[in-house]
């Protein structure tokens, strides 16, 4: 079935487009589950390793820092080798530190493995790349946002499930010290199983796999050499860097909340580990529908207007995110805090979906490079937020500053605007 799909047949697994859609979000879900599996267990790990606030901040920074580099790399690698090989390789290699963190014996070894785990966050770029090459302009925003949103929910599931999994292990007679280690083996094994499934069930694009297509001289959309050339071409497009900033202000905030919410609810509101995990998990679970909603609204706005309708939507969502984040930082009770978190979280997830609904139209010849640059922006935002928290030493003050920063960054969304002659087609948008 050659050619991009112009519709999403959600319950189908018969076409290469839908197999790529389903396998990409499943792989992303598993990777995000592994990426954030440590976060809800940090109150226990903090006690075992006697971690200071500064050390916890370093761990949170390490969890997202390496992802910046890996996201910049995997986008061009997708252009060169195809998303199938790139995703399979990331799943296999990423499982090593995920399994290794369960064997950490001190702060230094835990920090090292946490740094390595951050690489699996690059799975997002491959997911967005794969759906972008499989779906046409009419539905690509929805396809990108839905696959990313459902995959993103792995972070929320990890927040809620990991404390329960650890509790079940402890109830079976295992000590608490060993319980969190056993629980952390689960996501590593899941990554290896997913790697095998991805290799067997997917192909790079509607026409087939890149290597075979290049060897046979068959033309396809990403027919360039990829790699460094793709990255350089993407770097020359100012819209990629503006979206780099906007994604840092929405996905960067999402990562920051994932890594700090559980500890915040325990320390500031006195919640138990399980209750804090459920509260923090509700933020991540918004991704089940909110990110997809952002992409769907972007597609609908473009259908009634043009590419700039997508831009306007992104700006509105980012303003809502910034205002909601300021509310969250001033919440005086746990009830108001959760309500505020869900309100700004809704805008945050939708803004992420609206951002990547624009990515396929920035430069179709360097799609991997653009996707990598924008994706890396999310992690840059998270790292800067981590350093900010380390500098202030207070989560609430950090949240308030971040709310203002998001409002400032929303101006970059307006800067992405396309010329009035740009049409809702990849060819025109790439000009």
UniProtKB/TrEMBL annotation:
Bilayer-crossing regions: 20-42, 54-74, 86-104, 110-129, 150-172, 178-199, 240-265, 271-290, 311-330, 336-359, 366-389, 395-416
Protein name per the record: MFS transporter
Cellular location(s): Membrane
CDD domains, alphabetized: MFS_NRT2_like
Cited Pfam families: MFS_1 (PF07690)
Source domain of life: Bacteria
Gene Ontology terms describing biological process: nitrate assimilation
Alphabetical list of InterPro entries matching this protein: MFS, MFS_dom, MFS_trans_sf, NO3_transporter
Ranges in a coiled coil: none
GO cellular component, one term: membrane
Membership in a protein family: Belongs to the major facilitator superfamily. Nitrate/nitrite porter (TC 2.A.1.8) family.
Record-annotated Major facilitator superfamily (MFS) profile domain positions: 20-421
Topology within the bilayer: Multi-pass membrane protein
Keyword tags: Membrane, Nitrate assimilation, Transmembrane, Transmembrane helix
Chief location: membrane
Provenance organism: Massilia forsythiae
One function term, GO molecular function aspect: nitrate transmembrane transporter activity
């Amino acid at each position: 079935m050659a050619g991009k799909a112009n519709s999403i047949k959600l319950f189908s697994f018969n076409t290469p487009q839908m197999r790529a859609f389903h396998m990409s979000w499943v792989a992303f879900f598993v990777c995000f589950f592994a990426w954030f599996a440590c976060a809800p267990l940090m109150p226990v790990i903090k006690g075992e390793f006697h971690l200071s606030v500064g050390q916890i901040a370093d761990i949170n920074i390490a969890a997202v820092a390496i992802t910046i580099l890996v996201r910049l790399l995997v986008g061009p690698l997708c252009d060169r080798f195809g998303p199938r090989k790139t995703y399979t390789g990331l799943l296999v290699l990423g499982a090593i530190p995920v399994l290794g963190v369960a064997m950490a014996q001190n702060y230094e070894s835990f920090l090292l493995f946490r740094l390595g785990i951050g690489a699996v966050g690059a799975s997002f770029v491959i997911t967005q790349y794969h759906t972008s090459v499989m779906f046409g302009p009419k539905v690509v925003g929805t396809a990108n946002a839905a696959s990313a949103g459902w995959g993103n929910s792995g972070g929320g599931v990890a927040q809620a499930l990991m404390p329960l999994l650890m509790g079940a292990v402890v109830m079976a007679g295992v000590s608490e010290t060993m319980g969190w280690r056993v629980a952390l083996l689960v996501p590593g094994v899941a990554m290896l199983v997913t790697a095998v499934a991805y290799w067997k069930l997917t192909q790079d694009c509607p026409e087939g796999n890149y290597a075979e297509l290049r060897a046979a001289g068959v033309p396809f959309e990403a027919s360039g050499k990829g790699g460094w050339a793709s990255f350089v071409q993407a770097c020359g497009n100012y819209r990629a860097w503006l979206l780099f900033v906007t994604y840092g202000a929405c996905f960067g905030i999402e990562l920051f909340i994932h890594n700090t919410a559980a500890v915040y609810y325990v320390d500031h509101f006195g919640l138990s580990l399980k209750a804090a995990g459920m509260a923090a998990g509700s933020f991540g679970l918004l991704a089940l529908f909110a990110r997809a909603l952002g992409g769907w609204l972007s597609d609908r706005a473009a259908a009634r207007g043009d590419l700039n309708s997508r831009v306007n939507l992104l700006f509105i969502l980012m303003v809502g995110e910034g205002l909601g984040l300021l509310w969250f930082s001033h919440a005086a009770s746990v009830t108001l805090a959760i309500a505020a978190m869900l309100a700004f979280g809704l805008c945050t997830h939708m803004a992420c979906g609206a951002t990547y609904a624009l990515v396929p139209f920035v430069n179709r010849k360097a799609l991997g490079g653009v996707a990598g640059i924008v994706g890396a922006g999310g992690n840059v935002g998270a790292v800067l937020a981590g350093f900010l928290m380390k500098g202030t030493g207070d989560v609430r003050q950090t949240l308030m500053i971040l709310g203002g920063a998001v409002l400032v960054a929303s101006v970059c969304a307006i800067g992405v605007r396309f010329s009035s002659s740009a049409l809702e087609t990849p060819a025109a948008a790439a000009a």
